[in-house]
TrEMBL record, chain A:
GO molecular function: transmembrane transporter activity
Organism: Subtercola lobariae
Protein name: ABC transporter permease
Annotated region described as Disordered, given as residue ranges: 1-40
Membrane topology reported for the UniProt record: Multi-pass membrane protein
Compartments where found: Cell membrane
Biased composition (Polar residues): 1-29
InterPro entries associated with the record: ABC_transp_permease
Record-linked CDD domains: TM_PBP1_transp_TpRbsC_like
GO cellular component: plasma membrane
Keywords (A to Z) from UniProt: Cell membrane, Membrane, Transmembrane, Transmembrane helix
Transmembrane segments: 52-70, 90-112, 124-142, 154-174, 181-203, 209-230, 237-255, 290-311, 342-359, 371-388, 395-415, 421-439
From TrEMBL, chain B:
Classification lineage: Bacteria, Bacillati, Actinomycetota, Actinomycetes, Micrococcales
Protein name: ABC transporter permease
Pfam families hit by this protein: BPD_transp_2 (PF02653)
Record's GO cellular component terms: plasma membrane
GO MF, one example: transmembrane transporter activity
Membrane topology, as annotated: Multi-pass membrane protein
Compositional bias per record (Low complexity), positions renumbered to this chain: 1-23, 421-433
Entry keyword annotation includes Electron transport: no
Organism: Subtercola lobariae
Residues spanning the membrane: 38-63, 84-105, 117-138, 169-191, 203-221, 254-274, 304-324, 330-350, 357-378, 384-406
Subcellular location: Cell membrane
Cited InterPro entries: ABC_transp_permease (IPR001851)
Region of interest: Disordered: 1-26, 413-439
Statement: the UniProt record of this protein carries the keyword Phosphoprotein: no
Length: 454, 439
């Protein structure tokens, strides 16, 4: 499927950081191979995956929006009733919009083709633009002739709400995998965080204490993972899967046995209030989406930025990545590999635990059996789809959150696409990602391998 | 720093070329270390792990028991009350577990007395085949976490044949079973093909395929004309035709069905496959060291595909057992009943050996049967069984932990020498001391 088009580019001494930072957009792939002549050559493999994927989207658009185009007009509501700045509703004719956007998609495909033919990458903004255009066309097509408008603010607010635990989980997953420990236990960390947050916040009446306790609970689950994976060298995937079952069993047991009997005392946590950030919260569309949220969401913004900065611009981050990529080399320069792994897996668990608290202190307001409902596995998918990069993983989590939320929104409008297929989308995308059809998917080299000092 | 350090050591990229002399031989993947750990431990460790897990479960039961909590309020004045309450709660729970799983002392007829053990075998039937599927994949170095998806697809295929095609007695059952096996094999085979062709990690793919199967089946179940029963609005299929149902083994008083015979046959088959056939030898070789297997001329990628097809088919049999044996009146999307995940624990407890899995499946079947009895009789949530099961697997996966708890000697290591005192030790003693520390 991919056309090998190798050109030798002399790049001086390659190093680990360069490899990591060059994990470019999901388009052209690069492989570095040792070359016998001088050992410094770098083979660039251009990939036709991006233009082919673009073409596929264009063809789908052509079939769906032009050939099967629906007549009538679609309405988009852009602001809620209580907004300070009111934007008018936008009404567009469905068929014309479909045709225009299909033409734009075709142009993007040609652009991608030309870029790849001249051995250059397809930039990330092109993929993003393609996605947004396709989505607008899709929503227009769905809403054509429907009596209800598409509520854009509601769609976006719901997306953020569903994405918060995914993003925290993905950040925890990124740190854990970057340091070389596969974290399948994200689900358990989220669930543990949700449970403990509910109990502690209910008893103390302080949601902030609940939040702190959730971090500790997540770290506790991580502690078991780290202890078994690093000290006892048990396979990390097995420990992760079993830990998820263990936490599900424990929380279910305690919920039925203790919580449901004293729901007033133990399972009625106070929820965080929404805090409107002055000025910013009045920006149309963006304001209600991003700046009228609870403290957990603001914490999430900080966490994403902090993890990104720390991972790529601090000594700590360099050590974490070195341990995850090449533990022997890290050990040689005096980094305590297993110590670094241990503490960072704990940190990852704490961050994930905060995401769990969002279930009980932010969105739902009480603990329920298995309330995470597979969010941990979607977060794991986001880590892989986001290529082990905190920003990309966050975007992937937002995409998955959007897909889940879209089926809610389409359910209201009356969608021609069954909701199950929308729910399937994140998982299908992940399979494509790991199979290498969408971009490159290569994790930290030493992820999942225990380090035994010899 | 050379580029070779950056090159991925996974063998999937290189296309089967024998390594040239002097080239760095890629290290064997750690999965063979895992296999050694899984199978290297002794039966003693397994038994102790079960014991330890039961103790932890007992502590949980005691801690959450209301009488224990009440009695512990005045522990220092009358400690006997607390101890008595702990004894009552824990022994009551495990007594109910035993009576629900093995033999009911309170039953007034023989049928009622021995019904628990047949219930155990009924619960064990799908666990054994699913555990065999997962265990077979383990032996080839693959983690099949996709039991849920494979079971759902198999159940859908098998159930569809069972209710929609009137066929003669006998043939119908065989066709329905085969349809389920094929469904599971296809769903598992996707994983094998993706692993062989693209190197996609099977754990991620199986987890994702689980969710895809769940949504696919729930869509089909609520769509008229697909799997939904005609004239019904519930997401449920019609009942199986009587010609496709597994016959009862012990008559209508018991739930035990002929699926157990299929499970026993599958155990014999996997035993034969792994120990007597060349395909099984290839699987084991790939599982121990895929690089060595490739050098020896075994097609590693093809082995991945075959083992996932077989694994999926075996797990599919568990779905068949559910549809044609346990729930014959039409199934909904919860038909897998968590067996896909339980199978992982069964395979680990059975150390991926066919007869070990058979015994482990019966043990976990007993936990399931007893767990429901415990919930009904003692009001202790059945989820405690999940806790005990996962603890068993954790303890079994880490033999050093169990040895440390029970102060057992480490096998293969001679009696640990006293750590030599640094000042008086000879150079030889110091070096052995270092070796021990480095280990």
């Amino acid at each position: 499927m991919s056309d090998l088009n190798s050109t030798g580019i002399d790049t001086g001494v390659p190093n680990v950081t360069q490899t990591l930072d060059s994990s470019g957009p999901p388009t052209a792939t690069q492989h570095e191979r040792p070359d016998s002549s001088n050992g410094l050559e770098k083979t660039v493999v251009t990939s036709w995956k991006a233009p082919i994927a673009f073409l596929a989207f264009t063809i789908i658009a052509l079939v769906l929006f032009v050939i099967l185009g629906r007549d009538g007009s679609s309405t988009f509501t852009l602001s809620a009733d209580n907004d300070l700045i009111q934007l008018p509703d936008v009404t567009v004719p469905a068929r014309v919009t479909g045709i225009v956007i299909t033409v734009l998609l075709a142009l993007l495909t040609v652009f991608a083709y030309l870029r790849v033919r001249s051995d250059r990458r397809v930039p990330l903004w092109a993929s993003a633009l393609l996605g947004v255009l396709f989505l607008i066309a899709f929503l227009t097509w769905v809403d054509a002739g429907a009596s209800l408008p598409v509520q854009v603010p509601g769609l976006l607010v719901g997306t953020v709400s569903l994405s918060v635990p995914l993003i925290f989980g993905a950040l925890g997953g990124v740190i854990s995998e970057r340091v070389g420990v596969v974290n399948v236990a994200i689900e358990g960390q989220l669930l543990g965080g949700a449970f403990v947050a509910a109990v502690v916040a209910s008893i103390t009446g302080q949601p902030l204490l609940g939040l702190g306790a959730a971090a500790i609970a997540g770290a506790a689950v991580s502690f078991v993972l780290a202890a078994f994976a690093i000290k006892y060298l048990v396979d990390q995937v097995i420990v992760g899967v079993v830990l998820n079952v263990l936490v599900i069993g424990l929380t279910n047991f305690l919920y039925s046995q203790v919580l449901s009997k004293n729901a007033e005392l133990l399972n009625s946590p106070p929820r965080f209030d929404r805090i409107n950030i002055p000025i910013l919260s009045e920006i149309p569309i963006i304001g209600p989406t991003l700046f009228r949220q609870t403290i957990i969401v603001y914490l999430m913004y900080i966490a994403v930025a902090a993890v990104y900065f720390a991972l790529f611009h601090t000594k700590w981050g360099l050590r974490v990545r070195a341990v995850g990529e090449h533990p022997q080399a890290a050990d040689t320069v005096g980094i305590n590999v297993n110590g670094t792994r241990f503490w960072n897996v704990l940190l990852a668990g704490a961050i994930t635990g905060l995401g769990g608290a969002y279930f009980t202190l932010g969105s739902v307001g009480a603990f329920n059996k298995e309330m995470t409902a597979g969010a941990g596995y979607i977060a794991l998918a986001a880590v892989i789809f986001g290529q082990w990069d905190p920003i990309r993983a966050t975007l992937a989590a937002l995409l998955f959150g959007f897909a889940s939320n879209l089926q809610n929104a389409l359910g209201i409008i009356g969608s021609p696409v069954p909701s199950e297929f929308m729910l399937m989308l994140p998982y299908l995308l992940t399979i494509f990602a790991v199979a290498g059809l969408v971009g490159r998917s290569r994790g930290p080299a030493a992820s999942g391998r225990p380090y035994i000092k010899s | 720093m050379s580029d070779s350090a950056l090159a991925s050591p996974t063998p999937a990229a290189s296309s089967g070329a024998a390594p040239t002399p002097g080239a760095e031989i890629p290290p064997a993947p750690k999965s063979n270390q895992v296999l050694r750990d899984i199978m290297g431990g002794s039966v003693v460790i397994s038994i102790l792990a079960v014991l330890l897990a039961l103790v932890v479960g007992g502590i949980l039961i005691a801690l959450t028991d209301e009488n224990v909590q009440a009695a512990s309020g005045y522990f220092f004045s009358r400690p006997g009350d607390t101890i008595n309450a702990i004894w009552v709660s824990v022994s009551g729970a495990y007594g109910a577990l035993f009576q629900g799983a093995i033999y009911n002392f309170g039953g007034n007829t023989f049928v009622k007395q021995i019904k628990p053990i047949t219930d155990t075998l009924t619960f064990a039937t799908p666990l054994i085949v699913a555990g065999l599927g997962v265990g077979l994949a383990f032996r080839a170095g693959m983690f099949n976490i996709g039991g849920q998806g494979q079971m759902l697809i198999a159940a859908a295929c098998s159930g569809w044949v069972a209710y929609s095609f009137p066929l003669p007695y006998g043939i119908h059952l065989i066709v329905a079973v085969l349809a389920g096996v094929v469904g599971g094999a296809v769903w598992g085979g996707i994983v094998g093909v993706l692993k062989a062709r693209t190197g996609a990690h099977e754990v991620i793919v199986t987890i994702m395929l689980n969710y895809i199967a769940v949504y696919l089946i729930s869509y089909l179940l609520r769509t008229p004309g697909a799997l939904q029963a005609p004239g019904s609005s519930n997401p449920k299929t019609p009942a199986d035709l009587p010609t496709a149902v597994y016959p009862d083994l012990l008559g209508g008083d018991f739930n035990l069905h002929a699926g157990l015979l299929v499970s026993i046959a599958a155990t014999v088959f996997v035993w034969w496959l792994l120990t007597r056939s060349s395909l099984g030898f290839k699987f084991r070789a790939v599982g121990v060291n895929p690089n060595a297997a490739r050098v020896a001329g075994i097609n590693v990628k093809r082995s991945y595909i075959y083992v996932m097809l077989l694994s999926g088919g075996l797990v599919g049999l568990a779905g068949v057992a559910q549809v044609l044996g346990t729930v014959t009146s039409g199934f909904s999307s919860g038909i897998d009943a968590g067996i896909g995940f339980d199978a992982i624990t069964v395979a680990l407890l059975g150390r991926s050996k066919p007869w070990g899995i058979f015994v482990a499946g019966i043990l976990f079947g007993a936990f399931k049967a007893g767990g429901f009895a415990m919930q009904a009789g003692q009001g202790i949530p059945v989820d405690i069984v999940l806790v005990v099961q996962s603890l068993i697997v954790l303890f079994i996966a880490a033999p050093p932990l169990v040895r440390a708890v029970f102060r057992l000697p480490t096998p293969g290591v001679a009696k640990k020498p006293k750590p030599p005192k640094a000042s008086t030790s000879s150079p030889v003693a110091a070096s052995t001391g270092e070796a021990v520390v480095a280990k």
